[in-house]
What does this fold into?
Amino acid sequence: MENTGATTKLKGSPLEKETSRRRTFGIISHPDAGKTTLTEKLLLFGGAIQTAGAVKSNKIKQGATSDFMEIERQRGISVATSVMGFEYEGVKINLLDTPGHQDFAEDTYRTLSAVDSVILVIDCAKGVEAQTEKLMQVCRMRNTPVIIFINKMDRDGQNPFDILDEIEEKLSIRVRPVTWPISMGKSFQGVYHLLNNHIYFFKPNKQKLEEEVTEIHSLDDNRLDDLIGEHADILREEAELIEGVYDPFDANTYLSGEVAPVFFGSALNNFGVKELLDTFIKIAPRPVARQTDIREVKPEENAFSGFVFKIHANLDPRHRDRIAFLRVCSGKFERNKNYLHVKQGKTFKFSNPTSFMANDKSVIDEAWPGDIVGLYDTGNFRIGETLTEGERVIYKGIPTFSPEIFKELVNTDPMKAKQLEKGIRQLTDEGVAQLFTQQPGNRRVIGTVGELQFEVIQFRLLHEYSASCRFDYLNFYKAVWVTSDNTRKLQEFIAQKYRNMVTDKYGNHVFLAESEWLLKRSMENFPELKFHFSWEVI
Ligand code: G4P
It folds into this structure.
């Protein structure tokens, strides 16, 4: 297996050393597949927490849409666990949390723009679920390297070959098993490591860290029959099939996002997690070069640059500041140094930038490529904005997708119009929902991917901005960004569809289509126009 430099002796400047020992990734899954449990076990290995049960699930239970305490609880937990940094075998690992609830899918898409790789957790009984497909689409757009962990092997699930077929078919990625389960459910024996011939024996236990491991010379080793009895021949057969069907493991096809190495285990029993982590630090990419509007920026470049991918409002309504989460892309970030906010053309310095280590926050003096820094912000940042040492480049790659639910925001307290305006601007800057405006009349249309956001907005407008509002349902199917080199045709379209035309926060023209059929017809009638189903924030 190729070693990308994490555990080898590091050479070069502090910037090169620090960059090459960083791994910044996210765990994605359909809710309930075991993301929180796996996160917790990874943190246990990293020594970042001492006992199981320390990481709270950040998911809002399905159906809890009216429980505002739950919303607040979620916000509290998600700021605490947004980034979990820990050290393992000399590698600095930054694990970025992604919300499990599908109503927060946009937040997850944006977080994925700040990672260099992803671990996907799949429940062995449920296989590929709807949310998994959507999240993987985002990873595929960027060719993000993916490692797959098939979880809950202590329970009866689908045949492993069937799960792998389903992954390849539904997620458009090739797979390559690295470990292979020896039976499953009640008779689950453990896994066989196909690359190093080790057998890891499964013993249900939620707290243990060590696994029982035996090395055999090959699958022909007679000891295998003594060790796993009747399962030995099945394993031999299955291993032969694997070698015949799947290409040999190659770290390069993983790094290019073509092939996903697959591990089997049980996060709850801390089984298979160490193999996953040990392989992860060997093969996962260090911070990679990133594209800006002008050029590609390499992490080892001396000049600092980074972008904001998430904004979190202060939970205490008396303090209006927010935390902007910045991903460092190049150079060294330093406390109290002036940096250019490229979009505003102004410089800012930060006296208390924060780093996140598991559940702790602390003020830092410096950060390196791959790190995530929390910046206290009084309203200057929006998602997607770039900070640099002076160069006017803007990082690309934070997608916005069409919302699925549209409602008109109606002010119910005319005395508080200003507060409502400010509140809705700030909340949508945080990415809670998308804000569209229709003229004449300054009509506000809010678009979200889930109903829950409307409740969050209404609640927060009232509690943080003393503004009250109502939402009236609008019957739109999709928001599509419209551009054209042919200005006359674009203006003609806007004039013809004026009832359905709005602008997004950045002034881009957006067409709100009532149905798939009407959208298709509009596209056919105006071939000179480009209709974009996703859009870069900046
Ligand atoms: P999520 O963050 O992806 O939503 O999933 P989470 O880790 O919260 O796990 C969802 C449920 O699956 C939890 O049970 C968890 O204990 C269970 N689970 C996770 N990994 C395994 C595993 O390897 N084997 C088995 N059998 N179960 C597993 P719960 O009942 O919903 O919650 P809890 O009461 O156990 O916390």
User: Anything to note?
Assistant: Residues 1-9, 60-66 have pLDDT under 50 and may be disordered.
